[in-house]
């Protein structure tokens, strides 16, 4: 395969991943009362705007918890994908990408099927905190996995927004450091390259 063909293929894959990310983010934003599952910069903006309300409200459905929750689960999903990429580093990248994107797809299918059960007028029901955030786990883990995978393409590496890119880079570096520490514990005193 020529460099030009590889570049075109990578660009098409990156474009497809961006489309999926935007679509899932839009659906999630509408069904989870303004929660972003891909665009972490949006969540940090919402957190900053609503920070003064932190002690004024005691609701799990206030904007601050709704914005903070996906940041944590997004990073966990990114670390999961990073671990898969690191553990399978000797495999062809297309195989590793297939594994990660299959896991992502399964999470999104679970989101669709489980989520529709709890839809009330187009939004996930607020009757149970566990159900609400339990369903939100699926798309946020999936998008964390997708963005770590997308960064494997040169055309996407620097194309993520500041906060999303920083969190994705952290998840990737943490995974690399964790696998390196497990493989060579005595010769690698650092926990993760993210803390250099």
Automatic annotation (TrEMBL):
Signal peptide positions on this chain: none
Transmembrane segments: 12-40, 60-84, 96-115, 127-145
Classification via Pfam families: DUF1275
Keywords: Membrane, Transmembrane, Transmembrane helix
Protein name as annotated: DUF1275 domain-containing protein
């Amino acid at each position: 395969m020529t460099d030009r063909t590889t570049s075109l293929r990578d660009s098409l894959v990156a474009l497809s991943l961006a489309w999926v990310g935007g679509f899932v983010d839009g659906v999630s934003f509408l069904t989870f009362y303004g929660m972003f599952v891909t665009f972490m910069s949006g969540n940090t903006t919402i957190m900053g705007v609503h920070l003064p309300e932190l002690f004024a409200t005691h609701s799990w459905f206030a904007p601050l918890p709704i914005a903070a929750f996906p940041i944590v689960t997004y990073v966990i999903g990114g670390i999961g994908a990073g671990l898969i990429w690191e553990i399978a580093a000797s495999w062809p990248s297309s195989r590793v990408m297939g594994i990660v994107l299959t896991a992502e797809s399964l999470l999104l299918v679970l989101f669709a099927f489980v989520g529709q059960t709890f839809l009330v007028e187009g939004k996930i029901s607020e009757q149970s905190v566990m159900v609400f955030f339990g369903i939100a786990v699926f798309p946020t883990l999936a998008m964390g996995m997708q963005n770590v995978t997308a960064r494997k393409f040169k055309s996407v590496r620097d194309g993520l927004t500041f906060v999303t890119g920083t969190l994705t880079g952290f998840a990737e570096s943490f995974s690399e450091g964790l696998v390196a520490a497990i493989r060579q514990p005595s010769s690698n005193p650092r926990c993760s390259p993210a803390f250099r």
